[in-house]
Write a structure and sequence with these properties.
It is built from six helices and ten strands; from the N terminus they run H-H-E-E-H-E-E-E-E-E-E-H-E-E-H-H. It is of the alpha+beta class. The longest helix has 45 residues. The structure holds flavin mononucleotide.
Length: 263
């Protein structure tokens, strides 16, 4: 084959493409497990950040150490009872929500999170101190403007005082809906009261900002400027998951158990 022939040029180009594709595929396969590990670590980190157990700069070791105080439990959302014959470690509620055998379709009038379906079983977390439950961490998700936001809502053991809220995955616009990740915005959630006196979930992201000192301000946080749609999405998703079609039965059972010495 002549050095400058078309066939030789094509052969070199082909071999180059083949080598590169083998390298890229090998890297993708080899790095897959590390990516899965990193994703799991990121979810743990966000859970612990929402629970205020670590600082944003926490190392992998600090995250794993703090996570020793967290106990995962599976809950049947219809009954509010724990599911004890399944392993919380390997349970994936997002996968289950896509499986017709393991999900429920959410009636449209109840679907304020705009997610259409959810898993019948969800994984909740107890944050403990010397074996005593101090915080309840609930996974939440729902639609913003562009994406489904996935995060954690943290409640005190009275089941109504919000201790924190944080999202570990979303596709909202940086600087607009993406401001849900702004530490100053997130800080507003701590101390808010999630329910009214009849245990209806009433948290609200308020366009224009909260007017302090009103009868509802204890349930409200400031809206995100230029991102009312994401803010409304957050209102919908927190209230869905705290409500009767979400964790309502579980929270009622938890409250009842507190008067009888704990779950
Ligand atoms: C490129 C682009 C990205 C946007 N991203 C978001 C977003 O992430 N979240 C959101 O609520 N609104 C976003 N908006 C604005 C919405 O279209 C809408 O105008 C806004 O939510 C209304 O909120 P406001 O009444 O506070 O201005 C975006 C607009 C543009 C043009």
């Amino acid at each position: 084959m002549h050095k400058d022939s078309t066939a030789k040029t094509l052969l070199v180009a082909f071999l180059l493409c083949l080598t590169c594709s083998v390298l890229v595929s090998t890297a993708a396969v080899k790095l897959k497990s590390r990516q899965v590990e990193n994703k799991k670590l990121d979810i743990k980190k966000n859970l612990l950040l929402a629970s205020k157990l670590i600082k944003p700069t926490a190392s992998k070791d600090e995250i794993n150490e703090a996570y020793k105080n967290v106990e995962a439990k599976l809950v049947d959302l219809e009954t509010g009872e724990f599911v004890t014959d399944m392993d919380p470690g390997s349970f994936d509620a997002v996968k289950a929500s896509k499986d017709p055998k393991r999900n429920v379709i959410i009636p449209s009038d109840k679907d304020i999170a705009k997610i259409k379906r959810r898993s019948k079983i969800e994984k909740i977390y107890f944050v403990k101190e010397n074996g005593v439950i101090k915080q309840i961490v609930l996974p939440v998700n729902g639609k913003g403007l562009w994406s489904t936001l996935y995060g954690f809502m943290v409640l005190g053991t009275d089941t109504k005082t919000v201790l924190g809220l944080g999202f570990y995955q979303h596709g909202e616009t940086a600087g607009l809906g993406g401001e849900v990740d702004n530490p100053k915005w997130k800080a507003q959630w701590a101390g808010k009261v999630a329910f009214d006196n009849d245990w209806n979930p009433v948290l609200k992201v308020v366009k224009g900002g909260v007017v302090e000192g009103t009868s509802t301000s204890q349930h409200e946080v400031d809206g995100l400027s230029g991102a009312t749609i994401t803010g409304n999405g957050v209102t919908g998703l927190v209230n869905y998951w705290l409500g009767s079609h979400g964790f309502g039965s579980f929270l009622a059972k938890f409250r009842a158990s507190q008067t009888q010495g704990g779950m």
